[in-house]
Amino acid sequence: MNLPAGGPTDMRRMDDLDPEDWSSLRALGHRMLDDMFDHLAGVRDGPVWQPMPPAIRDSWADPLPRGPGDPAETYAAFRSRVMPHATGNLHPRFMGWVHGGGTPVGMLAEMLAGGLNANCGGRDHAPIAVERQVIAWAAEIIGFPQTASGVLVTGTSMANMIGVLVARTAACGTRVRAEGVGGTRLVAYASAAAHGCVGRAMDMAGLGSDALRLIPTDAAGRIVAPALRAAIARDRAAGDRPFLLVGTAGSVDIGAIDPLDRLADVARESGIWLHVDAAFGAMAMLSPRLRPLLAGLERADSVAFDFHKWGQVPYDAGCILVREAEHQLAAFAADAAYLRRATRGLAAGEVWPNDLGPDLSRGFRALKVWMTLRTYGADRIGAMVERSCALAQEMAARIDAEPALERLAPVALNVVCFRFVAADDELDALNAAIVADLQESGLAVPSTTMIGGRLAIRAALVNHRTRRDDVMRVIDAVLSMGRARAANGRRDNAA
Ligand SMILES: *Cc1c(COP(=O)(O)O)cnc(C)c1O
Question: What does each C-alpha distance from 122 to 125, 154, 166, 232, 343 come to in angstroms?
Answer without folding.
Answer: 8, 17, 20, 40, 14
